[in-house]
Amino acid sequence: MKFKVHLKNLSSLTVGNSSRIAYVDIGFNDMGIPGSSIKGAMRTAISWAIKNGLIKGFTSCGEVRPEKIKEAHKNGACDICKLLGYPDHEGVLRVSSINVSKMNILTRVSIEDTTNTSKEHALFKQEVMPPNQDLTFEIELYTNDCKMLELTLFSLYFLRLWRLGRGGMIDLKIDEIKECPSLEVKKYLGDWLWQ
Question: Per the database record, which ranges form the CRISPR type III-associated protein domain (predicted)?
Answer without folding.
Answer: 24-167
